[in-house]
Design goal:
The structure holds two protein chains of two kinds. By secondary structure, chain A is α/β, with parallel strands linked by helices. Chain A has a domain at about 10-155: Glutaconate Coenzyme A-transferase (3-Layer(aba) Sandwich), CATH 3.40.1080. Chain A has six helices and eleven strands. Chain A has helices at about 10, 35-40, 60-65, 80-90, 100-110, 175-180; strands at about 20-25, 45-50, 70-75, 95, 115-120, 135, 140-145, 150-160, 165, 180-195, 210-215. In chain A, the strands form two sheets. In chain A, strands 1, 2, 3, 4, 8, 9, 10 and 11 form an eight-stranded mixed beta sheet that branches. A three-stranded antiparallel beta sheet of chain A has the order 5-7-6. The radius of gyration of chain A is 17 Å and the shape is globular. The model of chain A has no long low-confidence stretch (mean pLDDT about 100). By secondary structure, chain B is α/β, with parallel strands linked by helices. Chain B has a single domain (about 5-220), classed as Glutaconate Coenzyme A-transferase, CATH 3.40.1080.10. Helix content of chain B is about 15%, strand content about 30%. Chain B has helices spanning about 5-15, 90-95, 135-140, 200-205, and strands at about 25-30, 45-50, 55-60, 80-85, 105, 110, 115-120, 140-145, 150, 155, 155-160, 175, 180-185, 185-195, 210-220. The mean pLDDT of chain B is about 95. Classes of the chains: A alpha/beta, B alpha/beta.
Chain lengths: ~220, ~220
């Protein structure tokens, strides 16, 4: 009925140069690390990565930046990864810094079929440059536009074979939001269970959003 | 001046910890603001949120009790209290922008007499990014800035920020090791002075205009 399981080769075959990829996680917590390993092995180049932060040069998705596979990153924080700052100064990576609440809301918009979101965050700062400003009932807002990707890589804790996902504790972060905003969604799950083993009320990402399931090689 | 930086930071943290009321939801930034959690007065329960998706955050885990799935917004391992809960980043920032968080405590590169804050970029030198700071200062009901009064002898409180802003006109209170200021519609007001400091010393180390409140108090720390 459901044939969503993929192996290393199956995932590797999805990867292409110049792709736009969303990767879940917050400073590495909740990041699908095996999928990052496979991107490193395949060596695809000039990726656009959408992520909360660029983690660390030796951990999380930051490893892709250290390996010079990323040409453009859209993120809220790069301060923990020395490589991102260095490559930005050299001009080899383009960095768009977006306030964290705006970043997640732009991704949510794309996944929820909305044309954008009005946020007060960034008004009166350099974040408003080049954006439409609207005044609604006397309050100024910036119009922030949806953000989509070709591929979203999600770090799940518990997934059933249909693709229903549960996230433990703070591994949740951007994962369920990104799972709604990409053409292809791959969940790397730490634990795979049979259909029916997850209590339906506790599912955090509904199965139709998940294209492929990959069983994590990390503990 | 209070020369011992650790002492100075703990004076700031202790003073800020006295602001909270029972069961208020509070978000502490990384660094100096994190110290505030160590000084909550007895009998007051403060509920800590971290923007990576947790309410009811507890202290760092005991050795052997670490759970890599429970982190704070600085990436450090933390614990969750029994009443705690987790949620995704969209919910987390809805709570923040939606005025459900009572206080945010953040550090500053510069803060000014109009309540504007610069805390995320020194162009050409240091570009860590804003993370959640812009949303926090726009969304929290009360914004407290915790900062040493000066850095390398230079005042941190200015007439007008020179660095790119985190947000404009959002700060409610500034707490240093020497003084407490409130940002009012009429400008900056000095409301408390540390017992080992004086209005003259504060004036000499502050690059902003401020009025001295009629009922100026000694900082309780």
């Amino acid at each position: 009925m459901f044939h969503k399981l993929i192996d290393r080769k199956g995932f590797s075959d999805l990867l292409k140069d110049d792709m736009t990829i969303m990767i879940g996680g917050f400073l590495g917590c909740g990041t699908p690390e095996t999928l990052v390993d496979i991107i490193l092995e395949k060596g695809v180049k000039n990726l656009t990565i959408i992520c909360n932060d660029t983690a660390f040069a030796d951990r999380g998705l930051g490893r892709l930046i250290a390996a010079k596979q990323v040409g453009h990153v859209i993120t809220s924080h790069i301060g923990t990864n020395v490589e991102t700052g260095k490559q930005m100064v050299e001009g080899s990576i383009k960095v768009d810094l977006v306030p964290q609440g705006t970043l997640v809301e732009r991704i949510r918009c794309a996944g929820a079929g909305l044309g954008g979101v009005l946020t007060p965050t960034g008004v009166g700062t350099i974040v408003e440059e080049g954006k439409q400003k609207l005044t609604v009932e006397g309050v100024d807002y910036l119009l922030e536009l949806p953000l989509r990707a070709e591929l979203a890589l999600i770090g799940g804790s518990l997934t059933d074979k249909a693709g229903n996902v549960v996230y433990n504790a703070t591994t949740c972060n951007f994962n369920p939001i990104m799972a709604m905003a990409a053409d292809t969604v791959v969940v790397e799950t730490r634990k795979l269970v049979e259909i029916g083993e997850i209590q339906p009320e506790l599912v955090m990402t509904p199965s139709p959003l998940v294209t492929h399931i990959f069983v994590s090689e990390k503990s | 001046m209070i020369e011992d930086i650790n002492l100075a930071k703990n004076i700031i943290a202790r003073r800020i910890a006295r602001e909270f009321k029972d069961n208020q939801l509070v978000n502490l930034g990384i660094g100096l603001p994190t110290l505030v959690a160590n000084h909550i007065p007895e009998g007051i329960n403060v509920i800590f949120q971290s923007e990576n998706g947790i309410i009811g955050m507890g202290p760092a885990p005991q050795p052997g009790q670490e759970n890599p799935d429970i982190t704070n917004a600085g990436g450090a391992l933390v614990t969750a209290l029994p009443y705690g809960c987790y949620f995704d980043s969209a919910m987390s920032f809805a709570l923040i922008r939606g005025k459900h968080v009572e206080y945010t405590v953040l550090g500053a590169l510069e803060v000014d007499q109009e309540g504007s804050l610069a805390s995320w970029i020194i162009p050409g030198k240091k570009v860590p990014g804003m993370g959640g700071a812009m949303d926090l200062v726009v969304g929290a009901r009360n914004v407290i800035i915790s900062t040493l009064h000066t850095e390398r002898g230079k005042p941190k409180i200015l007439k007008k920020c020179t660095l790119p802003l985190t947000a404009k006109h959002v700060v409610n209170m500034i707490v240093t090791e020497l003084a407490v200021f409130r940002v009012t519609p009429g400008g900056l007001a000095l409301i408390e002075v540390h017992k080992d400091s004086s209005v003259d010393e504060i004036r000499a180390n502050t690059a902003a205009d401020f009025i001295v409140a009629d009922n100026l108090k000694t900082m309780e720390v």
